[in-house]
């Protein structure tokens, strides 16, 4: 290593050697950090996880087409029913784990009270997915 001297001939000459002490200090500090943190990264909790099937439950909601014609008659998927029968069917459908979607088709000439009664019956049965079906107006 180069040390300073009182020799006047070499006093102004630049140092030709690199001082390695700071580099060694940094490397030793990094080595200690890696030695301390390496065991922390390899620790794991040993668990015995339960086995499960990978099949997804496909619970698509069914749809019920409920129609009311201009005379106020009710139709459940195209089958004529009375209001009492429709209420019973709404209750059965409301108890299912996956509630069906009720598509309500009402004639434009039907009295609103029939539509309101149907909505009330579906709501009492616990059905929340009720949609109104209509036709688009023809373009002129």
What can you see in these coordinates?
The chain is α/β, with parallel strands linked by helices. The protein has helices at residues 21-41, 83-94, 112-124; strands at 63-68, 74-76, 79-81, 101-106, 130-133. A 5-stranded mixed beta sheet has the order 3-2-1-4-5. α2 (83-94) packs parallel to α3 (112-124).
State the main characteristics:
140 residues; alpha/beta; Nucleotidyltransferase, domain 5; 3 helices; 5 strands
CATH class of the domain at 63-133: Alpha Beta
Q: What separation lies between the terminal Cα atoms?
A: 99 Å
Strand order of the largest sheet: 3-2-1-4-5
Biggest sheet descriptor? 5 strands, mixed
Q: SS-based structural class?
A: alpha/beta
Give the number of DSSP strands: 5
Cα-atom radius of gyration = 41 Å
The total of helices stands at 3
The coarse silhouette is elongated
Named CATH architecture of the domain at 63-133: 2-Layer Sandwich
CATH topology of the domain at 63-133: Nucleotidyltransferase, domain 5
Overall mean confidence score, pLDDT: 83
- SSE run: HEEEHEHE
Q: Can you tell me the residue ranges where pLDDT is under 50 for at least 5 consecutive residues?
A: none
Strand content: 15-25%
Portion of residues within helices: 25-40%
